[in-house]
Amino acid sequence: MTNSYLEVKEEVSKALHEHQPVVALESTIITHGMPYPKNVEVALNVEKIIREKGVIPVTIAVINGKMKVGLSADEIEFMAKSKNILKASRMDLPVIVAKKLNAATTVAGTMIISNLAGIRVFVTGGIGGVHRNAQQTFDISADLQELSKTNVAVISAGPKAILDLNLTKEYLETFGVPVLGFKTEELPCFYSRNSGVNLPYKIENARQAAQIMKAKWDLDLKGGLIIANPIPEEYSMDTKIIEEIIEKAISEAEKQNIKGKELTPFLLSKIKDLTKGESLEANIELVYNNARLGADIAIEYSKLINQLKE
User: What distance in Å separates the CA atoms of residue 125 and residue 290, rounded to the nearest whole number?
Assistant: First the structure.
């Protein structure tokens, strides 16, 4: 699809044209998720993990109003070091593009740009969702609505642990978004493998994920799906301890009246401080784990699509 607002890296364009496996990556993890230079190191490592599996990694961002589908190493460095980079979700993209601004893409923003480019597999750390006390604040991430309307599969370690997991699961069910537990019947919650929230569907391998993706879109059931991939056991944090820390972080955010787009970065930073950096290491390892699975799913999905064209 030709779109004057998109700038697709040459190797990405070639891979998509030839129906090779590609995996999209968001950029808020670079700009708002980790400190410099750790953010650059992790971004490049994620791309390396995917590339080593024979898959093209596609980090997505908006630079000078252009929706970049694939960043160079210099562009990743620019995003990592620049101050006041915006966060682009659905409501922000037209403004940021028209005003030629710089922005990292959220889960929703990355899904939109991936879909415009024809990328069907997207790897992230954790998705946004229904915030705690949303019945008073109405604070619900745009990621959930995007999952209900945009045809991209999202591999994540579940919703971020700062959220209300039960309400997030209910919201996704209401809007028809399949949540598939990868080798688990329990919704993983970012830093921890266990949440106590059961999932209706479990898959055992990347092939099954690809088959479900294809079946969903063949049936013209619009919207994405989530492959919930638990953090590796050796990096999983104690659920009770992390919950106590999250409560402290939320209490601090309330005292400082931090809301909206600033809330999640504030909470993640506070949790990192309270865990003495352990949560940051867990975050990094779960992203690497998701990248490996995402690459495998992209390979399997590519095989299914290419079989149709033979």
Answer: 7
Domain ranges of the chain: 6-309
Q: pLDDT digit string (tens) for 57-116?
A: 999 999 999 999 999 999 999 999 999 899 999 999 999 999 999 999 999 999 999 999
Please pick, among 9, 26, 68, 146, the residue that the annotation labels catalytic.
26
Instruction: Please tell me the distance from the alpha carbon of residue 95 to that of residue 88, in angstroms, as a whole number.
Output: 9
Q: Is residue 64 within a helix (H) or strand (E), and if so which, with residue range?
A: none
* DSSP codes of every residue in 227-257: EE-PPPGGGPPPHHHHHHHHHHHHHHHHHTT
The amino acid occupying position 227 is I
* Of residues 30, 57, 35, 61, the one with CA closest to residue 46: 57
Told to judge if 160 belongs to the known catalytic residues of this protein, a careful annotator would answer yes
CATH number of 6-309: 3.40.190.120, 3.40.1790.10, 2.40.10.10, 3.30.230.10? Answer: 3.40.1790.10
Considering 9, 68, 87, 160, which one is annotated as catalytic? 160
Annotated active-site residue 240? The verdict is no
CA-based torsion, 249, 282, 204, 115: positive or negative: positive
Query: Could you read off the pLDDT of 119-164 as tens digits, one per residue?
Result: 999 999 999 999 988 888 788 999 999 999 999 999 999 999 899 9
Burial of residue 255 (CB within 10 Å: 0-12, 13-18, 19+) is exposed
Q: What is the pTM assigned to this prediction?
A: 0.94
Distance, in Å, from the CA atom of 105 to the CA atom of 115, rounded to the nearest integer, reads 13
